[in-house]
Design goal:
Layout (H helix, E strand, L loop, with lengths): L2 E8 L4 H4 L4 E4 L5 E7 L5 E7 L2 E8 L2 E3 L9 E16 L7 E15 L6 E9 L2 E8 L7 E7 L2 E4 L3 E5 L13 E4 L5 E2 L3 E5 L4 E7 L7 E7 L2 E6 L8 E4 L2 E2 L2 E7 L2 H5 L3 H4 L15 E6 L1 H4 L15 H14 L3 E4 L28 H10 L3 E7 L4 H18 L3 E5 L6 E5 L5 E5 L3 H16 L3 E4 L15 E4 L7 H4 L8 H5 L30 H10 L4 E3 L4 H5 L2 H9 L4 E10 L3 E8 L5 E7 L4 E6 L9 E8 L12 E8 L4 E6 L4 E8 L1
Parallel strand pairs: 23-24, 23-31, 24-25, 25-26, 26-29, 29-30
Antiparallel strand pairs: 1-7, 2-3, 3-4, 4-5, 5-12, 6-11, 7-8, 8-9, 9-10, 10-21, 10-22, 11-20, 12-19, 13-14, 13-16, 15-18, 16-17, 17-22, 18-19, 27-28, 32-33, 33-34, 34-39, 35-38, 36-37, 36-39
Length: 673
């Protein structure tokens, strides 16, 4: 049921008063206050307080433009208008079913006091869990086309803070291990970037609704002052838009502790509602795939004697999926083009022609007869231009044979992608630039026309557009499980506990957990225990979850594999019981459409004992806790397979003691009686 409460208040003040800030707006609970002001040179600034304490000191706003004077000085803050909004909306799939969208909004006009007397609106929406703001450019004489060289938006932390961040502008996109530094040591950083202040308050700076605009990174200028740094474009303009248009929302999530960031819905709320209509065809699912064996180098994407995507191998995976209740089978390396220099090139890929030993129609029909679907794969090597030339035909083919989901890929060197510019020429651009923002949304909308869901790897960052386009079902955008197959280094034990409070604040991640074969090509193999691999199905949210390991490893270990078979991917509710960034976390989630709860707890290289109060369970009801925990000798270094599986009866008044081995975890299924 949709509940709406809408109020509009216009502050009718004389123009002379409107030009004399500060202007304030607070969150519905009154704890967060945003203040707009101007410095002595007429540069607009904003500041943020919480509970009367400064979080963001006065931070500048404005733009550098390519072919017209900058917009940042001699600007009056005029015509403030406020309104309040309150609704509860339902996700078609998600980490929680119902989301409250409750904010107070302040809209002001930023108007130049001198020629050329341009103007634009600045809109703040302040929630109990943070704030978002954006610029809105109207069409006006002298500025019909806006060519942005750089945003001057700043985020100046008011006090000392610890930061968790990955570098921006590097060749490997988002696939870096996180730095933990004082804010004064941040360099060029991607978003989301997470901070912990001295009093324990946590912040995350990111953006929402990145549409036809360049992705925002942050550059530390001096001290604790961070400035927006837009991803470069084809020419001197990082963004070119015809007015009227809006920028993405610049977001600041705020919480008392790390767990509060995880349960924030700010990013989703700042996106537009679903525009696709009925999306019942978007199906959350668990899947297996012809994938991990290529990363282990026992099979190949390319054709030949070790080709993975053969009829025989795919049918084996279909049979396994059907037997064990999995919804899909991913197949990589099925299409012509993998035999040549495909890495960062992609010119030879065909998205409609199969290798001779892969019969798409036959396999799709076989999967359907077993109650399973094939998941398609389109590796583009970041050659967006080449992909777009075939994309329509490729989606038409999948629609005809009944492939309802596609994993796309954008592997390349130097973080570049190939596009056709407005001049009709080929250009090489950054992954997060305006051209790739347009491309990724084109992929999603073209797929939606055929009722196909998209899971993008090496993607543009997640900014909550899954609310508007629910077929954008997941993406990668960080170091995934494959680094444990061949990475040097692989993912360290702290990695997953880091992702929960950083990358995953942006949205779902197709991390591909569930590996039991701990020895790989990576020097340390898979730096977790088996129990932690199971816990990742609860801890790392995605509406599609892969059982990533070789099928024989599951067949040989039916005990721990049972949890992977049982755990859902779509949730009614999510709570964080405890957690610290990069150290540990315990999450519980309630299955959608059922009464059972699931718990996942993980730690870094340190062993930990965590308390888990079960007050989230229904009062007065008994549950069977099916527990998958680290054994007494478990350790990520040499006893990763040591696992204990047991049951006990519990209720809402109980508290469990979770003992986690170094690099370990615990997974629990609470079955309602």
């Amino acid at each position: 049921m949709l509940i709406r409460l809408f109020a509009l208040t216009v502050l009718s003040l004389p123009l002379t008063a409107l030009a004399a800030p500060p202007v304030r707006v607070s969150s519905p609970d009154g704890r967060i206050v945003v203040e707009l002001d101007s410095d002595p040179d007429g540069r607009p600034t904003y500041a943020v307080q919480r509970d009367g304490k400064p979080l963001l000191a006065p931070s500048r706003l404005g733009f550098l433009l390519v072919d017209t004077p900058k917009l940042d000085r001699a600007i009056a803050v005029t015509a403030p208008r406020t309104r309040s909004f309150d609704e509860t909306w339902e996700q078609p799939w998600g980490e929680r079913r119902r989301i409250r969208n409750h904010y107070n909004e302040l809209r002001v006009t930023l108007a130049e006091n001198a020629k050329p007397r341009r103007h634009l609106d600045l809109v703040f929406r302040v929630y109990d869990d943070g704030l978002g703001f954006r610029y809105e450019f109207p069409r006006q004489e002298g500025l019909p086309t806006v060519r942005i060289r750089e945003e001057l938006t700043e985020f100046t932390l008011a006090g000392d803070a610890t930061a968790w961040w990955i570098p921006a502008g590097e060749w490997n996109r988002e696939e870096y291990l996180y730095h933990r530094t004082p804010v004064e040591a941040v360099g060029d950083a991607q978003t989301p970037i997470t901070f912990r202040l001295a009093d324990g308050t946590h912040l995350s700076i990111h953006e929402a609704a990145l549409v036809d605009y360049s992705g925002m990174n942050l550059t530390r200028v001096e001290g604790r002052r961070l400035k927006a740094s837009l991803t470069p474009g084809i020419d001197g303009a990082k963004v070119t838009r015809e007015a009227p248009f809006n920028t993405p929302w610049r977001t600041v999530q705020i919480a008392d502790d790390a767990g509060g960031l995880v349960t924030s819905s700010l990013i989703l709320n700042l996106n537009e509602p679903n525009v696709l209509g009925d999306v019942s065809w978007v199906k959350p699912m668990k899947y297996v795939g012809v994938w991990w064996e290529m990363h282990l180098d026992t099979k190949t994407w390319a054709s030949g004697p070790r080709h993975g995507a053969t009829n025989e191998n795919v049918m084996k995976h279909i049979d396994f999926a059907a037997k064990n209740g999995f919804g899909g089978v991913l197949v990589e390396g099925w299409n012509v083009g993998w035999d040549g220099d495909w890495f960062g090139n992609g010119e030879d890929f065909s998205f409609t022609r199969s290798y001779p030993d892969f019969d798409l129609e036959k396999l799709s029909a076989y999967a359907k007869s077993k109650g399973v679907v094939l998941i398609g794969h389109h590796e583009t090597s970041a050659n967006a231009a080449h992909y777009e030339s075939q994309m329509g035909a490729a989606f038409d083919l999948y629609q005809r044979v009944g492939v309802p989901a596609v994993k796309t890929g954008y592997v390349s060197d130097a973080g570049q992608a190939k596009v056709i510019g407005a001049d009709g020429k080929v250009h090489y651009v950054w992954h997060e630039g305006q051209d790739l923002a347009r491309h990724h949304l084109k992929v999603v909308t073209e797929a939606a026309r055929r009722h196909i869901a998209i899971n993008a790897h090496e993607p543009i960052k997640d900014t909550g557009l899954r609310r508007t386009y629910p077929n954008w079902i997941s993406r990668e955008g960080a170091r995934g499980m494959e680094y444990n197959a061949w990475g040097n280094p692989g993912n360290p034990p702290e990695h997953e506990a880091m992702l929960v409070f950083t990358r995953l604040l942006a949205g779902p991640m197709d991390f591909t957990p569930g590996v039991f074969g701990m020895k790989t090509r990576a020097p340390d193999g898979v730096a977790t225990t088996w129990a932690k691999q199971l816990a990742l199905y609860v801890v790392i949210y995605s509406p599609i979850q892969m059982a990533a390991d070789l099928l024989e490893n599951y067949e040989a270990n039916p005990g721990p594999f049972q949890f992977i078979k049982d755990v859902p991917v779509d949730w009614e509710e999510t709570r964080v019981l405890n957690g610290e960034v990069g150290d540990y976390v315990t999450l519980v989630r309630k299955e959608r459409g059922g009464d059972n709860w699931y718990l996942g707890a993980i730690t870094d290289e340190e062993p930990r004992t965590l308390k888990a109060p079960l007050s989230f369970l229904d009062p007065g009801r008994r549950y069977t806790a099916q527990i998958y925990r680290d054994g007494p000798m478990a350790d990520w270094k040499d006893r990763r397979e040591d696992i204990v599986i047991e049951e006990r009866e519990v209720g809402s008044t109980d508290t469990l003691e979770l003992k986690l081995a170094p690099g370990g975890g615990q997974a629990i299924r609470f079955v309602a009686r």
